[in-house]
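Q: I'm writing a short explainer about E3 ubiquitin-protein ligase CHIP for a general audience and would like to include a description of its predicted shape. Could you first generate the structure from this sequence?
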Amino acid sequence: MAFALKEQGNEYFKAGQYKEAEDFYSQAISVRSNDPKLFQNRALSRIRLSDWRGTEQDSRKAVELDGKSMKAHYYLAQALLNLRHVGEAHKEALKAYSICLATKDSSAEVVGQFVLRAKQAVWQAKETARLREMNETLAVVETMLDKQLERDLAYVEQRYEWHEIGEMGRGEEIEQLKKEADERRRNIRAAFARSDNPDTQERVVPDWMIDPITFEVMHDPVITPSGVSYERVVLLQHLKQSNLDPLTREKLTESQLVSNVGLKYACSEFLERNGWAVDW
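A: Of course. Here's the predicted structure. Afterward I'll give you a sentence or two in plain language.
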């Protein structure tokens, strides 16, 4: 019976009817409460519904039932990031990424990008605390922005409960409100920075941090026999299409790749101090 309920949930999910999918997964869980995949499915539905508390609960249960589930850790990381538990979100994202590498999961590149997002969020949280400590006025203004965002989000939830907007409208409005709040925060900080230090130093990402294929910042580099380093998942994806070194065009296999621990540490340290570099 649980299988049939799960299949019905899957059909609703494919149709974009996430609330109905969530309901069927809940019914399936009531029949079989020890199946981690059912909790994963409901967690994904709740991600689509922007129900981050529910996503966190389901993902934690899925991790409890199957600690090696990449999806469970990844969904948990997404929930935690949206709930602003950035440190734990980063840790869970790293767990999901490690599982991807170990199992050669095709989601490794997507999860790897999320690791960078979570790392940036950790840096932003530290930067926020530092800036607010340095400037009392900035702290007051940003606190007001945070409270306004909370009120705006609560109003969206209220309208959703009153059926004034649907699931898609709810998600779009939440995303737009957060985007606008982030933009206002950046503008305010820029204004304070100009007033405090008009000779701000230009922020530059060192060339040695950039992957030669995607031109994005590396966070898990590997080195080839030719001495060039690449982002692991990017190079592995390249090798699926061609077994040649991107630079020398000589034959190259996965077994020849070596983790560039020194570069990985240097990139990590740079991002720790310069979180803005993630968006470079």
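A: For your explainer, you could say: Residues 135-196 form one domain.
Q: Perfect, that's easy to follow.
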